[in-house]
Structures
1.
Amino acid sequence: MKLISELNNIRLNPRFDGVFHDDLNEIEFIYAFLNPESEHNKEVMDRKFNLNFEGVSYECYFAEPTERMLKLASGFERLPSDPSRISVSQIIPFRDFQRIDKLPEKVREYFKNKIPRNFFIKTASLPHGANLDRLVRHINFLLAYYDRSSPLISINEREDGGLPEDCKPIRHIDDSFPQYLSINSIDDIILKLIEVARGGQSRFSFLYYYQVFEFAGYHYVDENIKKALRHHLKDPALINCGEEKISELFSIFSEASYNDDVKMKKVIEEYCDPSVVWKEIENDKEFFCQEHSFQGGFELKPMIATDTTAATWKTMWMPKLYDQLTKVRNSLVHARERRENKVILPTKANNKILSHYIPVIARVAEQVALKA
């Protein structure tokens, strides 16, 4: 009966690897076994501090695990599941510690000279939901600010429903891999940006691919402007520098001083083949026909309509594509996007949505690299 009574006073929260003691207004975050002789652990394992946050006082401290938590751990058993969703992995040592005599010698060695420690937050009334998230994030901030080696509270991502399914990128941009190839030298900076983008998470991949446009746009000079300038420089009478000639040259240089947005648009429009980009969009057409809402408030309208074809895409792809990619980029980079006043938070859910844009922006960046 005592065990049932104890269990009635505790609960688990999938957001945190810990035990909520409702009758004690206390949260016990599962941590680890520490060696008290370690210089690093000495200061951490008995750390205590009081925190005042938004007018509420909290006691925060490391201490030995409660009997309740150990009872939970003793019955812990991992069920077969998706390995990508493993949670509360740190509870296993607390279970094994309670049956140490039945463990192999190698495993028992792990516990030698170590003491169990958990982290506690105690207050008069525990916050819930978003307020609890805010509290934990602020505690993590302070822990890391005052001790770069401090353990932090794990915050598990929520499993959000309604997210788009993963999309498998197309393998060949042509029917098969070409037998003969010739390429001009690509700028080392562009090459490095693409190399890093290919191996990163969706959020960072997107930003590195976008930097290819920024770099190429910075160095871009319109072909018509170059042609006009060559025409004037080849004029044998240019040495006379008549007023009319000077005015014409000023006009050319004035046209060359585009702002960054215009230059990036011109880079994409001049160097990219919309039919190649369309192959990536058509491969994930259902996704690009829908509006998408990101955690943080940013919303993105559909890129295409359900009846968009390769032919109609060629007529509307610019500036539609550039505008969409730029809005995403701004909401990733700026604390508050200048026009939308919304952000894309660094969450797994947002990364999953962003992953659908990676094949498209990658193909655009690669085409710019080949021709810039």
Note: The longest strand covers residues 26-34.
2.
Amino acid sequence: MWNTHVGRKRRSNYEEAKREKGSIFSEFFQMFFGETNNNEEKTQNSKTKKVPIKGENIETEIKVSIQDAFYGVEKKITLRALNGKMKNFQVKIPAGIRNGEKIRLIGQGKPGENGGKPGDLLIRIIIENDSKFTLQGIDLYTNLYLSPWEAALGTKLKLPSIDEEISLYIPQGMQSGETLKINGKGYHDGKAGRGDLIAKVQIMVPKAMTKEEKELFTKLQEVSKYNARKI
């Protein structure tokens, strides 16, 4: 014969065990199936968490003379910021910087997002040629102007380079367009050395002559058998 009192008691204890949060049954269920609500919250938080993004870089360029690039210089540049206001930057250009090389100002670009670092300001250096020198790679080119008698007879002279005057011997019979190369007197090569200085000969004829000069040229014309069109 069944004891109904004992059966009811056992069923009651089983129901209480299911309802009790810290019960063995509850722990067993969480072990295999996890806590659904907590996992959903973690997934939601991971979706909404913002990742820091670095700001964009800004690029610009400035022009400098060959002398400033050769010796190095500090320049002040002014750029318009994102808020429309003008902002000044002090840029230190190192001696011997190459044409087209960039200088990086860290943190002077566009602001980052979500706490990210700002971008950088990249300044491209454009080296401008002038009336004295032209830069090609690490070589400097210049013109060497000679009078007709200097070119014909040869001479000694002083040729200005970018940092000193060079004593130069001109052999007789120099022609326009010929070049003289002076080693190691060009631009910095970035390895504690220098390129070459290339001097291109340009023979200059005086536009205004004195009476005596004109007489000498006339006499030369009479006695010379040289014909420039028959070489």
Note: Helices lie at 4-19, 24-33, 36-48, 66-71, 148-153, 211-223.
3.
Amino acid sequence: MPLQIAVDGPAGSGKSTAARRLARELGLTYLDTGAFYRCVALAVLRRGVDPANEAAVTTVSAGLNLSFLPGAEAEPDRVFCDGEDVSEAIRRPEISRIVSLVAAYPAVREKLTEQMRRLAAAHPVIMDGRDIGTHVLPEADIKIFLTASSRERARRRWRELETAGRAEGLTEENVLAEIEARDREDSSRAAAPLRQAEDARLIDATRLNPDEVAALIRAIVTEYRAGAKRPKYWYGLD
């Protein structure tokens, strides 16, 4: 079985940044699983479907053709839905507001989980999301749970939105409220809720920069390749 690395954590914790960097450095396939659910949310909005209508959302998700194209060097990864590049569209605030709702539906999660597992069985992967180590890849070789304070995550997300020109009148307090609401939704959903796997290594990135986070995960991978296949200690700043 190819190497599998699972990186879980709440919104804005830096999962995608760390996973992308490690994928390029270690020659792994990176899969942003959150983008799968964002594609569903985008399709739901575009088709005028009520996100609260589970049956309708499930029908939309079943008909989508999703694919990814890894970016070269510093280029971002591209996400395609039914042949259209939706990489920018799925990152807009209106998508963030409903993605946890559509991602909570069991039938939607199972359909997308099947696709993720097929990819992981075919290639060495690093996946990030909210239930990778607990549900999608429960037997992953390496599991990381990356977190940070909600205030720090809101600050980072606000800066990203401003830089990308997608703030649209939002304030940092608005972003904080959305992140805290999403944390509650992700942690309380019935289907594969956000939680730290028992054998995952915890990294608290509240006071760490992306280089430091990547260095910690790289050290864990090095240790695993040297023969340590289960956690011996935790990383954090307590």
Note: The chain is about 50% helix and 15% strand.
